[in-house]
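Problem 12. The chain below contains 570 residues. Write out its predicted structure in token notation.
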Amino acid sequence: MFNDDAYFRFGNLIGYRDSFTDTALTNEKLVTLLQQAMRSINLILVCFDDKDRLTYANSKAFEMFNVTSSEELEKEFLAWIDPYSQKLEYSNWCQAHESLEGERVYDIICQKLYTSEHKLRNSIYIIDDCIPSSKNKAGIRYRQMHDPLTGLLNREGFYHVVEEYRKLHKNDTEPHYLIITNIRDFKLVNQMMGDKVGDSILKTSGRIIRSLMYADDIYGRLYADKFAIFVSEKNFDKTMYRNMVALVRSQITSDKHSLRLQAGIYKMNSLSDDVNTMCDKAMIALKSIISEEPVAYTFYDPVMMEKAMMEKTVVTQFDKALKNGEFRIYLQPQMNQREELIGCEALVRWKKDDNTVIPPNAFIPVLEKSNLISRLDVYVWELAAIKLREWRHTEFRDLYISVNISPRDMEFMDVYEVITGLVTKYEIDPTKLHLEITETVIMRNPATVSDLIMRLKEAGFIVEIDDFGSGYSSLNMLKDIKADVVKIDMGFLRKSANEDRSRIILDSVIYMAKRLGMGTVTEGVETMKQLEVLSSMGCDVYQGYLFSKPLPVMDFEKKYCDIYKSVEII
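Solution.
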């Protein structure tokens, strides 16, 4: 039977502090330790000089590698030892070795000795057979508990070691922290750069994490790009962890890829939570990060759990709600310079069976994160197409409906095929279905989106650039993206200390759009003063609460039926 207690007694990779894990090891302590090693029949001792030349090895070292000469031992040892750990001033880890007797796992300590001028003098390796009686079982257990790519604990190993730690320290009053790190959009790195680059990034991350941890920290790779760290408060330094994440990023960022790293942190004042709960809370904190900064971290807050539960409810109920028609389109009018109704934008609302209306900001971000937004978008597009077909023989036949294309849509469907398919299916005029594409969609893949826009325009659609001015490359984007309309972000109309500057920019955008042959729509119009200013600038279309909030379709038709002097809607 495998001896867990013996196995988990060794190594900072495993996470427990033993008699060798003193990072402030002095030369005097080292001399004492070496004397003990030389007298012991169980410890293996190997010494190298500053040129990586073997200077000493005891008999157990020769037995371990089954060699008889110093030259053979030097070659075999350097080929076996973890090259990254060799470079560290002090390191302690576990490593498997295959011998004639089978596979065994060894606990390794590497200590560097320096001259008074701080030049490397010697590298001392002290090696102990973790479980001498287990032989092949140790290797099997090692592989079960470790990630083969990074050499760190895997999910099973990390969970097991933390739970063992909890048993030994259940009465501790010292706070502890569980940290989970994440590389933002790591899947895109694998897709764009290939798995080899992705694996190299993960290995580098693992090596840096291992090199910066204390001997009694527990850490590992849970899955994909998720690394976990469990530390006591005495070892926790917020600045150090931020620097660690920044260091990882600096090592894996190049001209070809610039990555963002994030960390979710859960602080616990007792060890009452099991490791599953710890990881769940750290992951909730991680997922709450919306910052676009290169390095970002946040601490878990109970409010995050409430939000996570709400998000889970949204995802769980989505299929049923879609099937039961709980998602409705609301229409917000768009008016021309003469304040005449010329079209509207379709905005989605979730109206439950009890008539509770859930606003879009409560479910759309959740659906985007869960990759469900594309299904909702197609549903909204179809409702708009159906309504346009119904309006063909009514007073509303000249109105258009604008619908939104979200960033995720480009990833999960052929937008062109779906949109043109709806026009064919419902036999509607494509010029009546306006398509709003946000700057975010465009900037993610300008060439692909530019081609899509040209194909949609050729098919007769009116394409609008939505939220213009909210991104970072708006002007440069207009050079290559030949859309029909610029929809100006409402941020330009918000009150601020720089209203005069906003007005100048707004005036310039409208003037520029006209010179490019593009129409303009300004959303967020709430006052007559704003309308007058925009009219003087030459804006073509207006949308906002000055005219109407988004209305259920029936209310929209009733309200504007009077304007068209129509008694009923056919």
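Discussion. Residues 1-24, 565-570 have pLDDT under 50 and may be disordered. Students who got a different answer should revisit the alignment rule from Section 12.3.
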